[in-house]
Amino acid sequence: MSSTTGLAPTAPARAAGSAAAHVVVVGAGVTGLLTAVACARAGHRVTVLERGPLPNPDATSHDQHRAIRTLLPGDPGGTARRLDAHRHWQDLEALFGTPLYRRVGTLTAHPEGRLDELLAEADRAGVPVDLPAERELPPLGLPPGTVGVRERTGGVLLADRVLHAAARWLATRPGVVLRPHSTVRSVFTGSGRIVLDTGEVLRGDLALLAGGPWTRRLADSPVTLHRQTMLYLGRPAGDDRWDGAPAAGGLGREGRGWVLPPGVGTLLKLSSDTVCRPVADTDSSGEDQRPYLERLAVEGVLPDLDRYPVVGVRVCHYTADAATGGPLLTRVSPGLWTRAACGGSGFSTAPLVAERIAEAVKEAA
Residues 76, 55: contact at Cβ < 8 Å? Predict the structure, then answer.
């Protein structure tokens, strides 16, 4: 088994005259749908299997918004890939004919003592940044000794809009078959054959398992299942400080909190890695969420949290690389790949995974 985390950014178009392959995608979250889009654009036949409706509101990817940022301090290769992902999102907006993200920037707390080094690194990478004045922002819980650096190329991906736009585009493409309510029972990892609950057997030239937490039972991947609790808030009455506010990360007393701003129909979302926990299964029905909400409250991600009306609470699950806690793309066999992804980084880099799979189809041909 081999693992790939350095993803090829762009797959060349299929050579004229080469035979179209058949790609089977299990899971219609952002990775599955964008992989189907990339393969369809390359001229391949695609079948998308989803255990629920398509898009599925229970999918890990299904949410109001996710952050997108480009600068990864100390990792120039990762920054280059994030910039390439940003270009992919612009291309997908043009392809789908609808806005997919809000270009409000992404502000991240960084140590004051490393500010000059960070600004120099951003300049070398071609990432435009600035230092917004405190009066330009709503109150944010920047940890002591840090400064907020805003990336102009960042912003907020409109997650649900992305899923619906991709599904609509795929539904119009010849050679693409969308199969909601199709539950996969098992996968033969050596051959890539896929068996549905009905007993039907499918086999493509390449299969991608991108079914989020449910992929674990289909293929042996070195991943850990996590559960996250998120809080959705309304604006305080008469408060316009969030108009055009950026996404913000590195917040709270441990610097692990995120706030995604409201806008174009989305709520303000508060989350923190401090309430992310490994679990054995995806059944959260008997779990008391109050301790996790109390932990979010005392983290200080929003210093004036008590002024925000609570609109909703969401519990979600995702799988991540057991070694790093980050996303993982694994080639299980020549014809079978799996994807584990988490949070905003997994969502925002999904176009790169899609292009890597399209490239793998070309290589196999």
Answer: no
